[in-house]
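Protocol step 4 of 6: record predicted structures for both targets in the notebook before any analysis. Target 1:
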Amino acid sequence: MFGLGWMEIGALIVIALLVFGPDKLPQAASQAGKTLRNLRRMANNARDDLRTGLGPEFANFDPADLNPRNFVRKHLLDDLEDDWNNKPRELEPATTAPYVPEPVDELGYGEVPPYDAEAT
């Protein structure tokens, strides 16, 4: 649970008992639970409003993709994981011929390169 072990959870309970006392701890826990539920409800409503406002083009939009770490993981590392796991990917057929550079005339020793008066 949240990366906490039993020792950390026990320490948090002891600290909560010391801060709130045994008689007010249930009220504080109830208040914290209500606040968490309200925050979740507000976040879900905001996400739904954003999706409806963006329209059908962004139906599968996930606000978590705006986090740079998730963006990199989704768009860059998924391809690397496929390669690492030796999963074959479908390759698109080549539609154009490979690029072949044009041959360049090389200047000999002592030759002056061409000069373009309009370029300067």
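Target 2:
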Amino acid sequence: MHENVKISVKVNAPVHKVWNALTNKEQMKNWYFDIPDFELKEGNAFNFFESGEERKFHHHCEIAEVVPNEKLKHSWTYPDITKEKTLVKWELKPEQEGTIVTLTHKGLENFHHLGEDFYPESFRKGWEDIIGKSLKEFVEN
């Protein structure tokens, strides 16, 4: 069984502003993660740690698809603790004066062996915070 997390949030900002927040590493560090090696290009890899002092998990991602102002798709893994990968897809759709941001994180069953911090519900809570609070607040100000 495939375990996916799908979250959609409407933000009161135009698509191009949301796209820039998702793809500009200087903007990303204000609401998402500090990703110094991020470069928006299919095939490129980027790495980061979660914010804060602990820096527990090394995240490694590879960009699979870029459709400007519409879609960004990349892998998501923790190379220090597993070889398994998942897939994250960000989709943007204009709606009236704002944008619908839909994030789909597929393949989370691949992380079950890592424990409850890696269960779909943990990812759902994390993504809801990231999109529904951090990104929303950033692009609406």
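Step 5 preliminary note on target 2. Residues 14 and 96 are 9 Å apart (CA to CA). The chain has a mean pLDDT of 95.
Proceed to step 6 after PI sign-off.
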